[in-house]
């Protein structure tokens, strides 16, 4: 389902009168109409939440997935959506915490990040129901997901030599995409959206989260990779792949190189780690990666455990 379809479905609900919206929301909750409740959540997120229309398609898709999971669970466990028990939010989180991961190639329980995402989506559903005037219930407001004690940089560390090895098995367009993530620090969604007009000499204009624009320096190798590509349309876009299509191609290249694929995020961490090693400055790395907080940047940089050994040697 495209972002356009997501937003059009939401717009049809948002354009209803207050009374009509309330009636539709009550009916959807009473009948556990998952599709309509997903649309209601998107309508709220895109017209009444803090970010409004700037809410990313990735967030909307994640919240739809969460609602699609929560509503059938509520039905099967006797939860009245408009009058949930005060412990029902915690019950759902406990259910998620004992459920095995269903991702391809994954084992064990759901990660803390996935638990937080599902809980946030269910919380957004109830905000949408309150926005529609269907209920005042807030069963997830006091539900908190315990933080994962293992840092993300440890669970999914940056690629190191893997990038160079994998590039040898990438065709030119895939190589350019991987370089945009691993050498220019772009998020995969940002990289897939790059077009010829975005290139301004040695800089790339990137529109990141929340619609914020930043100028990212392009190294010689990235510039050469992009210059060697023919745009795919009149807008100058270099890529017409979905996230899934790009992932499939990258997985195949890594497999051919005899490497484990850990996602494009590990490539972005590769760029952050290399830049920090060169600058020793989290602020500059954060600006490069487009982070609003340096605290976020620290989660993208792998620092050796003996990083300061030389400095303290003669203390």
* Number of separate helices: 16
What number is the mean pLDDT? 91
**Number of strand elements:** 3
Return residue spans where pLDDT drops below 50 for at least 5 consecutive residues. none
How far apart, in Å, are the first and last alpha carbons? 60 Å
Helical residue percent? 40-55%
The oligomeric status of these chains comes to: single chain
Key phrases:
16 helices, hpI Integrase, Chain A, 2 domains, single chain, DNA binding, about 5% strand, about 325 residues, mainly alpha, about 55% helix
Question: What does this entry look like structurally?
Answer:
Keywords: DNA integration, DNA recombination, DNA-binding. One of its GO terms (biological process) is DNA recombination. The chain is mainly α and 315 residues long. The protein has 2 domains: 3-149, no CATH class; 162-298, hpI Integrase, Chain A (Orthogonal Bundle), CATH 1.10.443.10. The chain contains 16 helices and 3 strands. The protein has helices at 3-14, 18-30, 34-47, 57-76, 88-98, 112-131, 152-155, 162-167, 172-182, 188-192, 220-227, 243-256, 264-279, 282-289, 294-298, 309-312; strands at 199-200, 203-207, 213-217. Helix 3 (34-47) runs antiparallel to helix 4 and helix 13 runs antiparallel to helix 14 (282-289). The longest helix has 20 residues, at 57-76. It is globular. It starts with a helix and ends with a helix. The mean pLDDT is 91.
């Amino acid at each position: 389902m495209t972002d356009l379809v997501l937003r059009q479905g939401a717009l049809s609900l948002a354009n209803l009168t207050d009374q009509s919206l309330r009636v539709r929301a009550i009916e959807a909750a009473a009948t556990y109409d998952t599709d309509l409740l997903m649309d209601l959540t998107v309508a709220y997120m895109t017209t009444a939440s803090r970010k409004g229309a700037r809410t990313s398609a990735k967030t909307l898709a994640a919240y739809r997935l969460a609602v699609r999971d929560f509503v059938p669970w509520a039905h099967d466990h006797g939860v009245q959506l408009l009058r949930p028990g005060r412990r029902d939010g915690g019950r759902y989180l406990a259910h998620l915490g004992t459920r095995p991961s269903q991702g391809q190639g994954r084992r064990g329980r759901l990660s803390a990040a996935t638990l937080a995402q599902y809980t946030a989506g269910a919380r957004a559903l109830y905000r949408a129901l309150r926005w529609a005037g269907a209920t005042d219930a807030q069963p997830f407001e006091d539900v908190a997901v315990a933080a994962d004690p293992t840092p993300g940089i440890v669970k999914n560390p940056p690629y190191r030599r893997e990038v160079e090895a994998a590039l040898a098995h990438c065709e030119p367009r895939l190589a350019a995409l991987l370089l945009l993530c691993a050498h220019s620090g772009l998020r995969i969604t940002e990289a897939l959206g790059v077009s010829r007009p975005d290139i301004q000499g040695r800089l790339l204009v990137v529109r990141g989260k929340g619609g914020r624009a930043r100028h990212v320096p392009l190294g010689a190798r990235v510039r050469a990779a992009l210059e060697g590509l023919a745009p795919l349309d009149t807008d100058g876009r270099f890529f017409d792949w979905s996230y899934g299509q790009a992932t499939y191609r990258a997985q195949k290249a890594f497999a051919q190189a005899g490497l484990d694929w850990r996602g494009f995020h590990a490539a972005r961490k590769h760029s952050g780690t290399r830049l920090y090693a060169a600058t020793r400055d989290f602020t500059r790395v954060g600006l490069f990666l487009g982070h609003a907080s340096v605290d976020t940047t620290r989660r993208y940089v792998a620092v050796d455990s003996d990083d300061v050994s030389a400095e303290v040697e003669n203390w």
